């Protein structure tokens, strides 16, 4: 009986450790949430927008490029813009004409989020 309990505990520990978030950023949702930038380009890779937050001036066009092997979207939380499905290598651009903070997400993978702050 003790041997079965010992094996059950070992299996549980292995399963638990395989479910924890690694620091690699691979296939984690927005592992780069502290990332800020003043760039007008955003890469979609490893199931995240990078940078996850960017600041631009009014009138700037931001371009997102899907570098993942799966489809993603770039969709404003308020539905003011949406890319539709982007396959690997596809790009989507949006020009921000008003000041404010615009949160966005991937419609397919809703845990993927980002924002553009427009000055």
Quick take:
The chain is an alpha/beta fold and 119 residues long.
Characterise the protein shown here.
This protein has 119 residues and is an alpha/beta fold. It has one domain: Cupredoxins -  blue copper proteins (Immunoglobulin-like, Sandwich). It is 14% helix and 33% strand. The chain contains 1 helix and 9 strands. It has one helix at 2-18, and strands at 36-37, 41-45, 48-50, 53-56, 61-66, 75-76, 91-95, 100-105, 113-118. It has a 5-stranded mixed sheet with strand order 1-4-9-8-6, with no helix packed on it. It has a 4-stranded mixed sheet with strand order 3-2-5-7, with no helix packed on it. Strand 2 and strand 3 form a beta hairpin. The longest helix has 17 residues, at 2-18. It is globular. It starts with a helix and ends with a strand.
Task: Identify the notable features of this structure and list them briefly.
Immunoglobulin-like, 9 strands, 119 residues, 4-stranded mixed β-sheet, alpha/beta, single chain
Any chance you could write out the topology, listing elements then pairs?
Elements: H1 2-18, E1 36-37, E2 41-45, E3 48-50, E4 53-56, E5 61-66, E6 75-76, E7 91-95, E8 100-105, E9 113-118
Parallel strand pairs: 1-4, 2-5, 4-9
Antiparallel strand pairs: 2-3, 5-7, 6-8, 8-9
């Amino acid at each position: 009986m003790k041997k079965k309990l010992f094996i059950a505990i070992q299996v549980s520990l292995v399963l638990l450790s395989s479910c924890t978030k690694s620091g690699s950023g691979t296939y984690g949702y927005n592992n780069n949430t502290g990332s800020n930038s003043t760039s007008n380009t955003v890469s979609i890779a490893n199931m995240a927008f990078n940078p996850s937050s960017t600041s631009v001036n009014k009138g700037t066009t931001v371009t997102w490029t899907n570098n993942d092997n799966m489809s993603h979207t770039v969709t404003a939380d308020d539905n003011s813009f949406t890319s539709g499905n982007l396959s690997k290598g596809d790009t989507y651009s949006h020009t921000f004409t008003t000041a404010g903070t615009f949160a966005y997400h991937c419609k397919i993978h809703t845990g993927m989020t980002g924002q553009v702050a427009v000055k």
